[in-house]
Amino acid sequence: xxxxxxxxxxxxxxxxxxxxxxxxxxxxxxxxxxxxxxxxxxxxxxxxxxxxxxxxxxxxxxxxxxxxxxxxxxxxxxxxxxxxxxxxxxxxxxxxxxxxxxxxxxxxxxxxxxxxxxxxxxxxxxxxxxxxxxxxxxxxxxxxxxxxxxxxxxxxxxxxxxxxxxxxxxxxxxxxxxxxxxxxxxxxxxxxxxxxxxxxxxxxxxxxxxxxxxxxxxxxxxxxxxxxxxxxxxxxxxxxxxxx
Length: 244
Fold this sequence. Notes:
Helix content is about 20%, strand content about 30%. By secondary structure, it is of the alpha+beta class. It folds into 2 domains: about 1-95, Alpha-Beta Plaits (2-Layer Sandwich); about 105-244, Alpha-Beta Plaits (2-Layer Sandwich), CATH 3.30.70.
């Protein structure tokens, strides 16, 4: 059977999604360890994407296959009971054998959360980026518009491979402000390594007046990574949802 998982997690204390040989503090590792306990055999969990160390998720999607037919509710309850409190599997369902969490995905949405006030909020310090200086949201929205479309995003990634295409399509960027909180929502057909954080970093610099909104098209076309803003820290980034 092929099972699809929807997962929420606070990534603050983890080394990212992907299982690593030198630590057991990964999301994939925790899931696979609990499933091993449940089924008494190794289970490989495939995620929709590899979130980095410190990155959170509201709607990460994964799948695994097992030669057993177990009710999804039973799997969900077992995972809830034995996973750490900062990882919750919010949904389990049987899916077609061809379903693949990464390869079947057609769209992803990331949300980056900023707390824009001179004083930080102690309750949000691990889940948002604190920016003290006032940010011009309208300038950020103008800059965001230049990212929408299909482009070579070489300038906005830390990916090293020169063999894979750097072309991705950003379908929408929405910037919402409520009180001191600014949420940047980025939806695309796929994201390169650190692409969302690099885009947010440039939008922050625009908001602070350190870069002009009209600089964005030239940076994209230059493919020059030295021209982008500083990469935004991991703690403000959430994998919000994956569409199939």
